[in-house]
Design a protein that fits this description.
The protein is mainly β and 95 residues long. The protein is built from no helices and eight strands.
């Protein structure tokens, strides 16, 4: 699997099966794509909460076996943290 850093100029909109990720140069927001029950993500710092803008320290595109995923490193995570991963990407829009 390859891991390519992304440089975001304005805002990137990433659609996965269950989420819409809005990523700006220093912040990100994750929203459910549809209303209804959603699998809970357990984290210690709230970085995976839906509907809240969070600071990030980097964004990468992971690609392998025909699947692309977004990897976001929330600000303040300890060294070696892998951050958050999206589900498989369906579509990307933005700059």
């Amino acid at each position: 699997m390859t891991r390519e850093p992304l440089t975001i100029v304005v805002e990137l909109r990433v659609l996965t099966e269950a989420s819409v990720w809005l990523v700006r140069p220093s912040t990100y927001l994750r929203l459910p794509r549809t209303e209804g029950p959603r699998a809970q993500i357990y984290d210690t710092d709230g970085a995976a909460r839906d509907g809240v803008w969070h600071q990030h320290e980097g964004v990468w595109l992971l690609e392998g076996d025909g699947v692309r995923m977004l990897n976001v490193l929330p600000a303040g995570r300890p060294p070696g943290s892998r951050g958050l991963y999206s589900g498989p990407i369906e579509r990307v829009a933005g700059r």
